[in-house]
Design brief:
Length: about 250
């Protein structure tokens, strides 16, 4: 495998020229567009040269946390769909860990362009396409494993999305999402009428039991809530003054 995952970076089995390093960094800058990068990824070569995407999602430390909650450490021979792939970090991890094929889909074309650049820097064979998880047509998949991180709270039609994922999944969906932290609200959902955490694209935040029931109703046989990978400080508020919620993980078996 020409690319390896280390504690600090994704490492390619190559030595870049100064011109390549300058080109990669200039393309990273160019592709930040008007919204910037979300995934922060460092890539190094054999000679110790490095390039970095300037995101706010510290991918490697967060991956280490997600692994404690069931993110697969081995994808050997699996077909993988990374839905809501953003700049493709988790797609890259799946491929480095042995996936036979990986397809990353994101609603935003700028994210797909970023993912394709990261793929090329890493020298990985990954297919990235623009698409809408709530409106995926026939002829796609099936996939052994679906990676579903940071998507559920952005969906206006979550049951249609989950039904699509159930149709496409043959083994496991790894689901990470904003979730309600108060156990008294575990069976409920909170509709976000306006802005939440400076983001107008948020629609729903689910309690773990509510989301598990939705997953099963959509066509998965079992949903296991693994816990909160992150929780806010007691009484923490969003910039809008709303109660900040946590990030929960659920494993969903077909």
């Amino acid at each position: 495998m020409p690319t390896m995952l280390t504690p600090d970076a994704l490492a390619v089995d190559a030595v870049w020229s100064p011109e390549q390093v300058a080109y990669f960094q200039s393309e990273i800058e160019r592709r930040k567009g008007s919204v910037g990068w979300y995934h922060e990824v460092t890539v190094t070569d054999r000679a110790g040269h490095s390039v970095r995407t300037p995101g706010i999602h510290a991918c490697l430390p967060i991956l280490a946390v997600l692994e404690r909650f069931g993110f697969p450490r081995d994808f050997t021979g699996k077909t993988v769909l990374d839905i809501g792939c953003n700049a493709g970090f988790y797609s890259s991890v799946a491929k480095v860990r042995g996936a036979r094929s990986v397809l990353g889909i994101d609603y935003f074309q700028h994210s797909i362009e970023q993912a394709r650049l990261l793929r090329d820097i890493l020298q990985l064979d990954i297919d990235f396409r623009q698409g809408d998880g709530e409106a995926l047509g026939e002829g796609l998949g099936p996939f052994d494993v679906v990676i579903n991180t940071g998507v559920m709270y952005h969906l206006q039609n979550p049951m249609q999305f989950l039904s699509n994922m159930a149709r496409l999944t043959t083994e496991l969906m790894f689901l990470e999402s904003e979730m309600l932290v108060d156990s008294r609200h575990s069976e409920y959902a909170w509709f976000i009428e306006h802005e939440y955490n400076r983001d107008l694209s948020n629609w729903w935040i689910y309690g773990p039991e509510c989301l598990g029931r939705m997953v099963r109703a959509a066509g998965f046989s079992r949903a296991e809530f693994k816990g909160f990978a992150w929780t806010p400080a007691r009484g923490e508020k969003t910039p809008e003054g709303l109660d900040r919620q946590g990030r929960g993980v659920m494993l969903c078996w077909k």
